[in-house]
Specification:
The structure is a single chain. The two termini are 36 Å apart. The strands form nine sheets. Strands 7-8-6-9-10-11 form a six-stranded mixed beta sheet. The protein has a six-stranded antiparallel beta barrel with strand order 13-14-19-17-16-20. It is an alpha+beta fold and 641 residues long. It has six domains: 45 residues, no CATH class; 56 residues, Arc Repressor Mutant, subunit A (Orthogonal Bundle), CATH 1.10.10; 166 residues, 3-Layer(aba) Sandwich (Rossmann fold); 100 residues, Elongation Factor Tu (Ef-tu), domain 3 (Beta Barrel), CATH 2.40.30.10; 99 residues, Rossmann fold (3-Layer(aba) Sandwich); 97 residues, Elongation Factor Tu (Ef-tu), domain 3 (Beta Barrel). It contains 18 helices and 33 strands. Strand 7 and strand 8 form a beta hairpin. Helices cover 30% and strands 32% of the residues.
């Protein structure tokens, strides 16, 4: 209960309430603005029969419906108060707001209750949870005659070092795999390849995959899984995880038996081990396609691509290119000269430069649309991966992206998402000191034996930190059942199953409730995934490194979106790899990207202090003589436990 509401019911100020409650043995923290209902009832009982506000006694309870956000003047109208009086009440509650500023539902609710109103939250037009459910509704709403075939979206999975990245590298004919540390993919990326005049989109996930929530979101994007199994190693713990995932998400799967060129390769043994896990290949009388390949030597790759296209034809993946545009954010980052960017897989409709988009709490107008090789795209239709820029902030991987008609609509949706994100951070169990804002990773753990369970809990306890709370809501020995799934759905928890079975009814319920159950055979893998999840929940810190500052002395050429200027370095040095912010009279006007940097008409990577230079800048800001160019670089600080 809000302290303002309780003090109003007892006809005293909040400070008086704190003092008198302390006299009766109840402690209310000076920083708290809420207490739990149990404590509130105890306090009211201690004060005797609660007193109603005089106005409420004569007129009866007043009711008011409040939206998620509204302006102060609109709130005054709803509460039938002069705006000046309302602002005084807001100030009394510690909120400094002008007549045209917005307040959220929680703030408005406190004020309304303080004035004797009974508050109800009004369902906003755009207050839907823009997640997987929204995406599914959009796709279901499309008329059959408008649906067109689209390329399959394929995820390559398997145990670490079984050749996932090498396979993808061979398919797209690049050297990405060689540059990745430890042979483990660092980020989720999406790429397209063409076979027989038909496109295939590949989504590659890390070898030690991100955590449950990201897996759930990744599964929503994936049409088809290619399970890579090394012919010289066979079925391993992460192989089993992929098999289990494919089963309960009902995702089609093709097995790629890799490294057949090695002397130790034993294809029949691999097929036998797969059969032991319920994966019967066609040769063994089942329906699972198995393709023998050598990613390193390029053997069997064409056959694998043909099998992917054949499966896609059978599954009949479709979307409406002219329909409502929705997609899923695959990865996001801050890039020099572009700001907040995101990689998105379009799942319906079509994205174009200039479109207004919103994804989670991020919104904006698309400034650039590029493919995985940095080439500009005119548009991105269903199953097409694209990197887009123009967001107000960095969206989260797994956020559902959609287009809107106006920027105001996008802002409203983003504000609601941001408000919900803040609300989800409030710890469910309120303490006497009030609600504590934190980030919590909820877990439900089931194991085969008590010894394993205790070892897992001890390992997770070592991950304790100041920013993210790890809350094991439930743990036990035995199979994962329906109760576990229901608890996970209601508390947004992740279910971790260690060497234990998953009840078939629990599998069906998990699919219905969109709950992902992860299976493990190795404690290290489980703890590693939890560690990754905690790190991903850390608040990202943006680091800015300023290289130098220069003064613009001359404007040589002005074109749309580009300018060529001359200047002199006044502090530090200029570096071509960085970006620039344009300053005039102490005010930052905007940012730009250094396209070219010259000194004495010769291309230069750096220009030292007191030296003159020529520079081509890509920016929407019209630069003038005398402006200051600040050369800097931004990066996200990596955090570890």
């Amino acid at each position: 209960m809000n302290l303002s509401s309780l003090s109003s019911q007892l006809n005293m100020s909040i400070q008086e309430l704190r003092e008198k409650a302390r006299e009766r043995g109840f402690f209310i923290s000076p920083k708290a603005n809420k207490i739990d209902n149990f404590l509130a009832k105890k306090i009211m009982d201690a004060f005797g029969e609660k007193k109603e506000a005089p106005q409420a006694a004569t007129q009866g309870p007043k009711k008011v419906k409040l939206p998620s956000f509204l302006k102060v003047r609109d709130l005054a109208d709803l509460l039938k108060l002069p705006v000046t009086e309302l602002i005084k009440v807001l100030i009394k509650n510690g909120v400094m707001a002008t007549i045209n500023e917005e307040v959220d539902f929680d703030t408005a609710s406190i004020v309304a209750q303080d004035l004797g109103f009974e508050v109800e939250e009004q369902a906003d037009q755009n207050q839907a949870e823009f997640g997987l459910g929204f995406l599914q509704e959009v796709l279901k709403a499309e008329k059959e005659e408008n649906l067109k075939p689209r390329p399959p979206i394929v995820t390559i999975m398997g145990h670490v070092d079984h050749g996932k990245t090498t396979l993808l590298d061979t398919i797209r004919k690049t050297k990405v795999a060689e540059g990745e540390s430890g042979g483990i993919t660092q980020h989720i990326g999406a790429y397209r390849v063409k076979k027989n005049e038909r496109w295939i989109t590949f989504l590659d996930t890390p070898g030690h995959e991100a955590f449950t929530e990201m897996r759930a979101r990744g599964a929503n994007v994936t049409d088809l899984i290619v399970l890579v199994v090394a012919a010289d190693d066979g079925v391993r713990p992460q192989t089993l995880e992929v098999i289990n995932r494919a089963k309960f998400t009902n995702t089609p799967m093709i097995v790629a038996i890799n490294k057949i060129d090695k002397p130790e390769a034993n294809v029949m043994k691999v097929k036998q081990e797969l059969a032991g896990q319920g994966v019967l290949t066609e040769e063994w009388g089942g329906k699972t396609i198995a393709v023998e390949i050598s990613a390193k030597q390029g053997i069997g790759i064409d056959n694998l691509l043909e099998m992917i296209l054949l499966t896609a034809e059978v599954e009949n993946f479709r979307a409406n290119p002219a329909g409502k545009t929705v997609g899923t954010i695959i990865e996001s980052q801050v890039l020099p000269g572009k700001g907040a960017t995101a990689s998105v897989i379009v799942q319906n409709g079509c994205l174009r430069v200039g479109d207004i988009v919103v994804a989670g709490a991020a919104f904006g107008r698309i400034r650039s649309l590029e493919d995985e090789k940095g080439r500009r795209l005119k548009e991105a239709g269903p199953s097409v991966p694209a990197q887009i820029s123009g967001f107000s902030e960095v969206p989260q991987a797994g956020d559902i992206l959609q287009t809107t008609q106006t920027l105001d609509e996008a802002k409203q949706i983003a504000a609601i998402a941001q408000h919900k994100n803040r609300s989800h951070k409030l710890v469910a169990k309120q303490q006497l000191t009030g609600d504590v804002e934190s980030k919590t990773l909820n877990l439900i753990i089931k194991a085969d034996v008590a010894g394993s369970l205790e070892a897992i809990k001890q390992s997770i306890a070592k991950l304790k930190n100041d920013e993210v709370k790890i809350d094991i809501l439930s743990d036990g020995v035995g199979e994962v059942n329906e109760s576990d799934v229901l608890m996970a759905a209601n508390s947004k928890a992740s279910v971790l199953a260690f060497r234990t079975k998953i009840n078939p009814k629990a599998v069906a319920l998990a699919k219905q409730k969109n709950v992902i159950i992860d299976s493990y055979d190795v404690i290290y893998s489980l703890v590693e995934d939890v560690t990754d999840a905690v790190i991903k929940m850390f608040t990202p810190e943006l680091e800015k490194t300023v290289f130098g500052r220069a003064k613009v002395l001359a404007i040589f050429r002005t074109e749309k979106g580009e300018m060529i200027v001359g200047g002199r370095v006044e502090e530090g040095e200029l570096r071509k790899k960085g970006q620039v912010s344009i300053w005039r009279n102490g005010v930052e006007l905007g940012r730009g990207e250094i396209a070219e940097l010259q000194q004495s008409k010769v291309a230069a990577k750096t220009v030292a202090k007191n030296e003159e230079f020529g520079m081509k800048i890509k920016s929407s800001v019209k630069i003038k003589e005398g402006d200051i160019l600040e050369n800097f670089e931004e990066s996200i600080k990596k955090k570890t436990l």
